Amino acid sequence: MEFPCGHKGLVKWVEETAAMCRPERVHWCDGSRKEYDEVMAESVRKGSAVALERRPDSFLFRSDPSDVARVESRTYISTSSPEDAGPNNNWIHPDKLKEKMRKLYSGCMRGRTLYVIPFSMGPVGSPLARTGIQITDSPYVVCNMHMMTRVGNEVIKALGTDGEFIPCLHSVGYPLKPGQKDLPWPCAPMEDKYISHFPEENLIWSYGSGYGGNALLGKKCLSLRIASNIARREGWMAEHMLILRLISPEGRKYHIAGAFPSACGKTNLSMIQPTIPGWRSETLGDDICWMKIREDGRLHAINPETGFFGVAPGTARSTNPVAMEMLERNTIFTNCALTDEGNVWWEDMGEPIPSHAIDWKGRDWNPQSNEPAAHPNARFTVPISQCPTKSPDWEDPEGVPIDIILFGGRRSGVIPLVCESFDWDHGVFMGATASSEATAAILDKVAAVRRDPFAMKPFCGYHMGDYFQHWLEMGDRLGDRAPRIFYVNWFRKDPKGRFLWPGFGENSRILKWMCDRLERKVEAVQTPAGLVPRVEDIATNGLSLGKDALPELLRVSARDWEGELEPIQDFFGELGSRLPLRLRYQLEALKRRVKDGRSCPEG
Ligand code: GTP
Ligand code: SPV
Ligand code: MN
């Protein structure tokens, strides 16, 4: 083994891990293009990846059919006391979990290469950045980490001989016996999969899955579950949010951070092409946002990632032209369909449906097939540098000052298109009670509508009640410099099940209304749910929308909202005594408003 680093703690950890996992060789990643090309070429040679003839420097991976998304049921927050993990997380005591996992890790890399990936979340040297070291036996993970994070020697250099790092251990959990043939996508059976976090020692152990958030440990594991713990201790925020800069015709810049659950529109909104004349927008991030109060008293945000791991199905020139341009080259595709021309295809791509393709399971597919050609959670991985709308400031280590915070989810009824909070506490209540219909981003079966507070249900690495309290305290510190909070729902449907709102670029009309609110240019209507636009204040020029659609989209029915009260109450009940009193008051206030609204004639 060759150690290109003088960090004794790191070398020791790698040595101990290698002794446990018994790989055939150890490779320290330098993050170079040459390394990426070599690891990718090896994946193609071994049959794990297909080089796409019609897309330069682009590759398709097909996962094992059992390993297609995050698995929340196998994700653990392992703290000494179960109360600290909270009812929102699975829990096993660290001693017991480590014992179990050490057995699995023992010899798990036989016949494989152990890669050491030094990576930085956030620009190297930024006061907000964190260093991780991922050990993995997955070449797919190596290539994805190259795009999603800052990998390589500059990270090792910045660590010096005793810098702090977050150890992230990963194995696909499929050791090879001598002479045994490898699989295109090795992984372990469900009952052996563990995505484990030890927040008391900033440690991540993941075993058995090669997919997305289970395996790219800088993303959900480090930047959300572990970072949310660090952020709470240190007084900042680690959130599941996109970051966007919206620029008015006068050149005023508004920075927006938005938390929507998985597969509910963050990537799309971050790349929005405003349809209202004169407005422009720039992309800063699509999934993760770290925010800190700076000297000016405002909340500043950075995106710790350097790439997008985005949902492919639904991405089309008509919905997200920016992404389509960005994906034209140098992209990793996972679980998309392969056309006979050597290109990728997915449902709702807006390209002609191929008469024949190879589906995501590697089988022949044609339009008569009963299953989708691409998996609904098929994804692309691409560097932000390729995004045509990337902000020139996307790597600014100081971050951008946030003016507006959005919460949202996918709800076919009840929730209006947009709703402004009365104040910070009410905004925190909106975030805390956010809900969404199920999507393909997780493997687990969940309720048709589930509470996904702050879009952090799967990612908050500690007790949700304490997390709510942290949000309240951040507001107390921000005072009148706090961002304004809005709740949006692009997904309301008519009785026939069609989306009432065209969404995508047209969402800019709603963002503009928010900016008008900040500038005190427009009044809003008080409803039980919050402050809703007057119909005449939403710019509708050029929008083809039925006459009744907008009033319906903005309608807040006290009767419908009555149905929200019980699920919220039940959910709050689960949090027990750690639910902040201030949110209990918010619920009581909502109940009163709903009751009063019901006694109004239009209720
Ligand atoms: P994660 O990467 O899982 O965190 O998801 P995300 O929040 O970034 O979701 P994404 O933007 O990839 O959107 C997921 C799906 O929602 C895609 O199929 C989109 O086409 C669809 N979608 C996004 N925005 C809109 C919208 O405004 N209206 C409608 N109807 N669909 C949308
Ligand atoms: C999500 O599920 O919210 C994602 C995809 O962004 S994954 O990286 O797989 O978690
Ligand atoms: Mn996400």
Sum up the structure in keywords:
Phosphoenolpyruvate Carboxykinase, domain 2; binds guanosine-5'-triphosphate; Phosphoenolpyruvate Carboxykinase, domain 1; 3 domains; 16 helices; binds sulfopyruvate; eight-stranded mixed β-sheet; six-stranded mixed β-sheet; 21% strand; 603 residues; binds manganese (II) ion; alpha+beta; Phosphoenolpyruvate Carboxykinase, domain 3
Sum up the overall morphology in one term: globular
Distance between the termini: 72 Å
Q: What is the CATH topology descriptor of the largest domain? A: Phosphoenolpyruvate Carboxykinase, domain 3
Structural class comes to alpha+beta
Beta content: 15-25%
Mean pLDDT score: 96
Helix fraction, binned, reads 25-40%
Bound molecules: guanosine-5'-triphosphate, sulfopyruvate, manganese (II) ion
Question: What is the compact description of this entry?
Answer:
By secondary structure, the chain is an alpha+beta fold.
Q: Can you walk through the features of this model?
A:
The chain is globular, with a radius of gyration of 24 Å. The longest helix is centred in the last third of the chain and has 19 residues, at 581-599. With 603 residues, the chain is of the alpha+beta class. The mean pLDDT is 96. It folds into 3 domains: 8-30 and 71-234, Phosphoenolpyruvate Carboxykinase, domain 1, CATH 3.40.449.10; 239-303 and 394-596, Phosphoenolpyruvate Carboxykinase, domain 3 (Alpha-Beta Complex); 308-386, Phosphoenolpyruvate Carboxykinase, domain 2, CATH 2.170.8.10. The protein is 28% helix and 21% strand. Strands 1, 4, 5, 6, 7, 8, 9 and 10 form an 8-stranded mixed sheet that branches. A 6-stranded mixed sheet has the order 14-12-13-25-29-26, sandwiched between helices. A 5-stranded mixed sheet has the order 2-3-18-23-17. The protein binds guanosine-5'-triphosphate (GTP), sulfopyruvate and manganese (II) ion (MN). The site of manganese (II) ion has 3 residues, from loops. The site of sulfopyruvate has 9 residues, from α7 and α8.
